[in-house]
Amino acid sequence: MNARVLVTGGAGYIGSHTAVVLMQAGLDVVILDNLCNSSALVLDRLERVCSRRPEFVQADARDAAALDGVFARHRIDGVIHFAGLKAVGESVAQPLRYFDNNLGSTVTLLQAMERAGVRRLVFSSSATVYGDASASPIPETAPLAVTNPYGRSKLMCEDMLRDLAQADPRWHIAILRYFNPVGAHPSGLIGESPRGTPANLMPYLVQVAGGQRESLQIFGSDYPTPDGTGVRDFIHVMDLAEGHLAALRYLERKGTGITVNLGTGRGVSVRQMLDTFQRVTGRAVAHRYADRRPGDVAVCYADAGRALQHLGWQARLGLERMCEDAWRWQAQNPAGYGG
Ligand code: NAD
Ligand code: WQD
C-alpha cells in the first residue's frame, strides 16, 4: 500500500505544488484546508496534472474533531503542515489572529497526531526566523531573531516542536525554512493566486506584466548591493516542493529530526529579477524606484549546504524558469483561481 500523507494547507500555493510532487512520486495525499486563502478549484487542476485527485477535507486545522476524523478514516504515515497565515504586514496589524491561527493550528494538529500515534511531521517555517541576519549566506545555526508577529508565530512553533522532540524521541520532525518561493507548475495550471494587492515581488510583477496593475515599485535603490536593490534567495516553487518529499524520505530513513534551509544558496537582486523577467517573457514591465520598504533587509540568502548533505536535495531550476513559469501561469489565469 502507498504511503499516505496528510497535507494541511494543501490547497495553497506551496501546498498544491507539493501535492503534485507527492502524488507523482506515488504517495496518496489527503488535503485538509479551510480555503481561507485558496480555492477548491485547485483540486480540479491537481487532477488534470496528476490524473488523480487528492482526498480533500474542508476544515480548519484548529478543529480537533475534524483532525481526529481524518486520522480515523485514513491510515496516515506522515503530515506536512502548511496551513497558516503568512502576510507580514497583516500580522503587525492583527497579531492575535496570527497567533490564534498559526500557533492554534500547530498545537491542535500535534495533539491529534499524538492521539493517532502519527509522529512524523514536516513543518513550514521561514527564513523570517533569522530576522535581520547580518551576514548571508545564512546557515541554520545563525541566531534566531524575529521582527514581526508572523515571524514570531513561526519561531514559537519551531520552539514548540523542538520541545516536543526533546520530550519524546518518537517524534521525528523536519523544520523547513523557506527563502523566497516564486514561479509555478510548468503546465500553467497551478500557481500563486493572491487575494487583493500582492505584497510580494513576483505576484506583483506578473500582474503589472499582465496589465492588471500599472507599475511595479522597486523598494530601495540605495542598498549596499551591486545594483542598489534588495537581494533575495528566490527559489522555484517546484524545487521547494521537491524539498518536502526529500524531507519526508529523510524522516523515514533516519528516524530523527532536522532543521534545514530550503533556498538556492544564491542571492539575486530585485533589478536582476525584473530584467530577467522582461528578457525571457518579452513583456515590458513598467516600474519606478521608490523608498525602501520598512522592515526589509538588504540581503538575505541561504547557506544551502545542509539540505544537500542531509536531504540530498538542491534547487535545480534557475531564474529564467522561475520567470517563464510564473508568467505562463499568470497569462493563462489572469484572475488566478478566481477567474
Ligand atoms: P497560502 O496562503 O497559499 O497557503 C496556506 C493554506 O493554508 C491556504 O490554502 C489556506 O487556506 C490554508 N489555511 C490557513 N489557515 C488555515 C487553518 N487554520 N486551517 C486550515 N487551512 C488553513 O501560503 P503558502 O505561500 O502556500 O505558504 C504555506 C506555508 O509556508 C505557510 O505556513 C507559510 O507561512 C509558509 N511560508 C511561506 C512562504 C512564502 O513566501 N510563500 C515563505 C516561508 C514560509
Ligand atoms: C522581495 C524583495 C522587496 C514587492 C517575504 C516575507 C518572508 C517570506 C517570504 C513567509 C524585497 C522587493 C517587493 C514590490 C519590491 N514569507 N519588492 N517591490 O520581503 O523578502 O519576504 O516573503 O515566510 O517572511 O517577509 O519578499 O517578495 O515581499 O520582497 O521592490 O512590490 O522585493 O523590497 O527587496 P521578502 P518580497
Automatic annotation (TrEMBL):
Keywords: Carbohydrate metabolism, Galactose metabolism, Isomerase, NAD. Its EC number is 5.1.3.2. GO terms for biological process: galactose metabolic process. GO terms for molecular function: UDP-glucose 4-epimerase activity. One of its GO terms (cellular component) is cytosol. It catalyses: UDP-alpha-D-glucose = UDP-alpha-D-galactose. Residues 5-263 form the NAD-dependent epimerase/dehydratase domain. Its cofactor is NAD(+). InterPro entries: Epimerase_deHydtase, NAD(P)-bd_dom_sf, UDP_G4E. It comes from the Bacteria. Pathway: Carbohydrate metabolism; galactose metabolism. Belongs to the NAD(P)-dependent epimerase/dehydratase family. Homodimer. This is UDP-glucose 4-epimerase.
